[in-house]
Design a protein that fits this description.
By secondary structure, the chain is α/β, with parallel strands linked by helices. The protein is built from ten helices and five strands; from the N terminus they run H-E-H-E-H-H-E-H-E-H-E-H-H-H-H.
């Protein structure tokens, strides 16, 4: 579908497995999880999640959407293919979920549309859930009024899993597939791959497919041959 032919409201697919129950995170994320899972939240409430890429922000946004079917999920990395007015077309919405908000910083027309949405949600009692790699006060917005509005949000840092936690998740996810990953194999993967869970699961997918095709166990020599490490 081309940008010109897109019919509103927008509808972007998200992962069916992205649920609160499958979120793997540090204990420090407990207040955030409690907040997102509250069945009733204050009208006009803004919530802002921030953290490094791969820490689980998108998972939490999508889990929230699963729990709140009325939410409209907008991954801004994809939405930027359209016109800034696409944001303004969502004034009928009462619950918006925006991912990668940092991508709008410095783009004045997009910022103006986002500011208009924020004003609408505040007046109408709607809610906004955002995620970015930094808190709103640290993003280089050109509209001071937008930055001021976004700083009204409840701000939560999404704490990334420790390496030990990632090793446990990788081992358990492999076990769910019927794969036994020895401790030295897990350590080898963590030492050579990007350590965020998204990339680790992608590597596990690749190794699983190749091991199944070749009818081999996942060992360090197999990983070297498969991934060129």
């Amino acid at each position: 579908m081309t940008p010109a032919s897109l019919q509103l409201p927008f509808s972007f697919a998200f992962a069916s497995e992205a649920r609160f129950g499958s979120f793997c995170g540090e204990v420090a994320n407990a207040p955030l999880l409690h907040h997102l899972q509250q069945t009733s939240q204050a009208a006009g409430q803004f919530t802002w999640l921030w953290g490094d890429a791969g820490c689980g922000k998108t998972h939490l946004l999508q889990a929230f959407c699963h729990a709140n079917p009325e939410a409209i999920f907008l991954p801004l990395q994809k939405l930027l293919a359209y016109e800034p007015a696409s944001l303004g077309s969502l004034l009928h919405s009462s619950l918006l979920v925006l991912d990668d908000v940092e991508l709008l910083a410095g783009k004045r027309e997009w910022e103006e549309q986002l500011f208009m949405l924020c004003q609408h949600l505040l007046v109408s009692g709607g809610r906004l859930l955002c995620a970015a790699q930094s808190p709103p006060a640290q993003l280089p917005f050109v509209l001071a009024d937008l930055q001021s509005r976004l700083q009204l949000a409840l701000v939560y840092e999404v704490h990334e899993l420790s390496d030990a936690g990632k090793a446990t998740v990788l081992t358990e996810r492999a076990k769910q597939r019927g794969i036994e990953l020895r401790e030295e194999v897990v350590s080898f993967i963590l030492a050579r791959n990007q350590r965020n869970l998204h990339d680790l699961m992608a590597v596990l997918d690749q190794l699983d497919r190749q091991a199944l095709a070749e009818q081999r166990k996942i060992t360090i020599p197999f990983i070297k041959a498969c991934l060129g490490w």
